[in-house]
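Something for you to look into today, if you have time. Could you write out one complete protein record for me, on any chain you like? Leave the record below and I will have a look.
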Amino acid sequence: MSISDPASPRVAIVGTGGIARAHARALAQLPAVSLAACVDPVADAREAFAAEFAVPRRVPSLAELLEGGGIDVVHLCTPPSTHAPLALEALGAGVHVLCEKPSALSLSELDAIIAAERRSGARFATVFQHRFGPGGARLIELARSGRLGSVRTATCETLWDRPPAYFDPPWRGRWGTEGGGPTLGHGIHQIDLLLAALGPFTRICASARRQALPTNTEDVSAAVVEFASGAVATIISSLLSVRESSRLRIDLELASIEVEHVYGYTDADWRFTPRAGAPTDVRSAWDLPGDSPSSSHLDQFRAVYGALADGTAPAGLPVDSASARETLLLITALYQSAFTGTWVTREEADAPGPFHRALDGGGRAPWDDVKEEH
């Protein structure tokens, strides 16, 4: 797979809903990148988006876009159940894919995407923008380097609020179309940053419930996770929290690092607490610019298109499919534990079986009276 001019890639956005506008606004801040096309089966939505962002080419389907050629990267901003089939279509045409979370609805789907990457030479990446702000990048570096000692404990919270009307779109809140509830669709950003900092998990024990919202999926989940490093973390994801908060706290031997925000952090949202009496190099380890804008798609897009321009893309685009798979593997284990009422190991979650194919295991949720059809 090759791009005619890696320094000036031609991009198409597939799906023109709200998140597509975040993509378009970020791309507009990358002068070398050309937003060349948009795709949406709904003509009015497609034309309105094209007019808003001066997109010269607008088509109703990805197939028509790819048939016409001239596109190097597609951004998938469509409902979750379409991510895998659209990614496979683009990769099959030798076009790179940058996909909104979740990467896919199951490990089986994501493994099919990884296989398609190998065949085509094009690359697949998932949008996990919280890794790329200065604070997130510093957290990952410090936790992985051992500069502050080993990680002891961590707390990962996504406490959001969604009214029943949020689920009016028929694809939301359904296993077969959204893939899961707040664990997969909302908490995944904090979970991904946690894993990027702490590394591989070994086992998990979880609970999930549907308490209030008109969904088939959960509206809250909680878990205890053990990591290969010896660290222990708690994870909670909720859509029932009146005071919304996204919080990640990591306690290392020599310091505690914490961020609290809602949908995007700034430098001011982080708190670094060195251990009393820590040496100067520990106390100065957290120095940030102090005036960085809120973490956003732009930070990751800079990294993605930088990799294309400097020739490192063949090794994988940030965040590559293998890294995104780690996040989906933990979420798979969380659901498997919640459905079976047992501790689930990394190996058990990654083994072929019902939860590998669908996050509800293809069966009845603990809170359902009847099985949902897939």
Q: What stands out?
A: Confidence is low (pLDDT under 50) at residues 370-374. The first helix runs from residue 18 to 27. The chain has two domains: 10-129+298-319, 134-291+326-357. The first strand starts at residue 10 and ends at 14.
